Amino acid sequence: MTERLSDKLRQFLKSAEGREITTRQVREETRVQPGTPAWEAVRVYMHRFVAEGLIKPSGRNDGVFKVIKRAKSIQVFGREKRPPLTLNPPRDYETKEPLGFWDALVVRENDLWVIAGYKNAGKTALCMNILGENLDMKPVVMGNEFSLMGEDGEHEPSPRFINRLEGMDWVEWTNGNGEERFELLPVYDDYAEQVKPARLNIIDWINLPTELWMIGSVFEGIKRALRGGIGVGVIQKNIGRDSGRGGAFTKDFADVELLLDPYGDDKDMVLLTVETVKECNRAIMGKRYVYRIKDGVKIVDFREVFRCGHCFGKGWRGTTPCKECNRTGYVDSPGVW
Ligand SMILES: [Zn+2]
User: What is the pLDDT of residues 24-44, one digit of tens each?
Assistant: First the structure.
């Protein structure tokens, strides 16, 4: 009888791994009746389980125990080696050429790509192009750019999202049955809980925690939830800074970080910097590119640029605007001075 009770309790604890439980709950769940010898035995067993390291008192003296979850060891050798995933590159709308740096980036399962951009510097346009090129992965999109709460309290696609979908006239957004080739989720926080595993998850944008250093744990949670998928997350960035808000904390968990800044005075021009790359097949970190965004979503005139040697990238020589780079700080070919 007691043997069976002990087995039953252990079985229950197994099912409750990682959760908090009380002695009362244990009795209820294992259907131990008050007044029976088993009733008191449960209390005794709970002490034994603490000694065995199966459960741990909360430390608040409130009768709550944490059921310890044992990490399983992972086999290292003899596993099937998985090839890098592909994430199709966005293309220049006019030349149809893929963005020049993309093929240098090695994509792996659970990678989180971070797009850190100054406001109106084309963060969403880049996301939309990644989305449009990767519909075969049935991507998931979430965040304020994609949906909002309507007057009736129901979630709906944001008008800006609809406009962008319509602007991308080269993409088939639905399959033959009219079924959407992506999934729109009304999610504006706790992203990690909503990320769909083994898919491309695009979050535009990630609300930053009040404490900026916590961005690391937000990214970490998303990465863990990807479970074989890929994440693309957008965050805000201050102008000219070399990382998104959250500073160095954004870099710990970003496998790729792309920075977007305005370029010169033209509000449709974007300066893209390949900032962080954890794995690449040729030197690409620190390279810069510019392009124009047409109709809010088309990437055109994409090209690499180089720091202007006349003004050292400042756009100004003393108090006079640099003529060589037209005050942008960058020129189309290296070493022209
Ligand atoms: Zn210059």
Answer: 999 988 889 999 999 999 999
